[in-house]
Each structure stands twice: as C-alpha cells, then as structure tokens.
Inverse folding.
DNA sequence: TTTAAATTTCAGTCATTACTGAAATCACGG
DNA sequence: CCGTGATTTCAGTAATGACTGAAATTTAAA
C-alpha cells in the first residue's frame, strides 16, 4: 500500500515522538498508520507500507492490543487477521492515560506504601524524610482517586466541564 | 553520605521507573535523592551516594535544571555548588506536566498544523484521512488550551475543584 | 489427517542511549 | 595573572532495547 505524502509525514512524526512516549518507533508508526487508515489492514500490508519486518509488526500489534488501542477483525472467506485502531481520539487519549497510570503511578504508590510500612521499624531514617515520603504517597493516592472519579463520569459531562474552563471555578466559588 | 534502607529503596524504585518516564536512570535517582535529602548536596556527595561518575551527575543535574526541578544554592565561604530539589510535590508534578506538554504535545500540534496546510494542495490523500487529522489537531489544541487555563488558576482553586470530585458535575448540572 | 497459509517465537544482530574517566575549561583567591 | 579546586566536555565503552529473519507453531480448509 502506497502512502500519500501527508500520511507519511504524520507517521514519521509519530515515530519520532515514540521515544518520548515510552513506546518503540514501530509501535508508534503502526498505530499512526492504523489510526489514519480508512479500513482495517492485514499485518502484511502494515509491514510492507512501513518497511519493517513482519515479526516486528506481530509483536508491535500485540503491544497495541494490550493498550486497547487496536483490535482484530476478519473478512468473510479470508483467514488473515485485519487490524483496526480506535478512531475516536478521545478514547485513544483515555486508553493512553489509563495505561500510563497503570504503568507509572500504580507501581509507585505500591512501593511507597511498602516504604512507609518498612519505615515504621526503621529508626535511622529522619522523621523529616519519612514525612516527605508520606506526603508524596498521600498526594499520589489523591490524584489517583480523582482520576478514577473523572474517568467514571460520562464523557459529555467531562467535555462540558472542560469547555467551561476557568468559569467552573467562579461558579463553585 | 550513607543512605538509609528506606531511602535507598525509594531511590532504586525511582530509577526503575525512569525508563517509563522518559528520563535516564541517573536523572531519576538524583532527583529522588535530592527530593528526599533534608539539605542541599554537592555534586560530589551525590556521585558518591549513588556510585555514579561525577561527570554523569553534572549532566544529569543540568537536565533536572531544564525541567526546573532542581536549583543551585551556595554556602558562605564554599566555592562548590549545592543542589536542592523542589520539595513541594504539587509543584514537582506541575513541572513534569509542563515539560511533557512542551516535549510531547506542542511539537505534535506543530507538525499536524503543517500537515493540514500541506494537505490543502494534496489531492492524493482521501478527504476522510484529512478530516481525521483535522479532528485530532482540534482535539489537541482544545486540550492544550484547557491545560493552560487550569495552570493559570490559583492552586487552592484547583485543589478545591479536585476535592469536589464528581460533585462539581452535579453543581454545574 | 494432511497441507499450506498465517502467525508467533526467539536467538542473534544492529542501533541507540547512558555512562565513564581523562582532559579541557572555568572561576576565584591569593 | 598564577594556581588550585570545581565543573564541564567529550571520545570511547558499556548497557539497553529494538529489529530482523529463520524456524516453530497455530489454524483451518480440503
């Protein structure tokens, strides 16, 4: 499948951003391709379009599926898997945020809890330091709880809140 | 400087998270150390505490300063630089979010704008695809603007909003 | 059950990034 | 402006992570 210049540019940029986003270049490029593609693509088509090894595509698609960003479909009379990406950009962001929270925040909260417990019978560590750890743990837990609450809201509500911007602050005084 | 077991544990965890956060292990460890340290430290103390090369500390501290997470102080009659980290966890998060926005979102908005402009005189790319790019650009711009608004609010207001949780939605109907 | 297409696994290679240590530079006191 | 201590630069090396391609496995039609 030949890609148009505009599409290529997007895919390449996505790939360049990959490092900063904590995924490999291939994963990002494949996601960009599937996100833009009008119809689902087979793994072979993806490999050819992006000039990467077929096996690389396989692994990358697995990762995109663990992020819940890509799913598999089939066409009648064709044994091959067809892959498609979530097209709703809002959902895409939500999936990425969920993933980041799970991978970046949750393990840290876990570790900090253990550190707190451990520090109970630890008489070397200065109180000040223990307190700093405690504060940080509280903060992360509060943030985490807040995120879950917002995630639980219906999307139009969140959008409305966002669109009100600073006005919300005035309304609630 | 000898580190207590609890402190060590925190620093090591921070280091392990580093990859996912898009910084090097050293940068993360140094940040953790300075964040927990009761008083500012010299580069040499840091290098020794963490067993990393002095030059590595130098480079890492530079990076932490570009993130506005670490600053330099001095003590009278001592030519050495003393480094301290922001202790306010809220501020720390804000700095990290600012940095991520600047490095991850802003360049993407920029590129998408260019793609849009380019796609005007591009007759190969299907309308559907162009539209998808446009939608994503709009979304990122809206998100970006919203973030700036919230960043501009006084901290107590944001905290109040967060603590209200889902109640906000009910208040504004 | 056989066969062939489709997919995945994995060991090895390649590329990238992080880190070290020596040498160069800077900054200040004398 | 010389000398000493502090800091930075940078070339080389080490460590890490990504990618390839061949072999193994799975899947389903015949």
């Amino acid at each position: 499948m030949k890609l148009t210049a505009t599409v290529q540019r997007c895919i390449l940029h996505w790939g360049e951003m990959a490092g900063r986003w904590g995924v490999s270049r291939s994963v990002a490029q494949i996601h960009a391709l599937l996100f833009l593609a009008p119809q689902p693509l087979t793994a072979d088509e993806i490999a050819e379009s992006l000039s990467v090894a077929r096996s690389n595509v396989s692994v990358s698609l697995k990762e995109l599926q663990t992020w819940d960003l890509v799913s598999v479909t089939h066409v009648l009379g064709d044994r091959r898997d067809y892959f498609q990406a979530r097209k709703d950009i809002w959902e895409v962001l939500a999936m990425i945020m969920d993933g980041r929270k799970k991978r970046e925040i949750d393990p840290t909260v876990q570790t900090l809890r253990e550190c707190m417990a451990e520090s109970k019978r630890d008489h070397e560590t200065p109180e000040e330091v223990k307190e700093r750890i405690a504060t940080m743990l509280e903060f992360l837990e509060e943030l985490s709880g807040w995120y879950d609450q917002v995630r639980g809201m219906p999307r139009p509500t969140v959008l409305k809140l966002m669109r009100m911007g600073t006005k919300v602050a005035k309304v609630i005084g």
User: Anything to note?
Assistant: Residues 89-120 of chain B form the longest helix (32 residues). The mean pLDDT of chain B is 95.
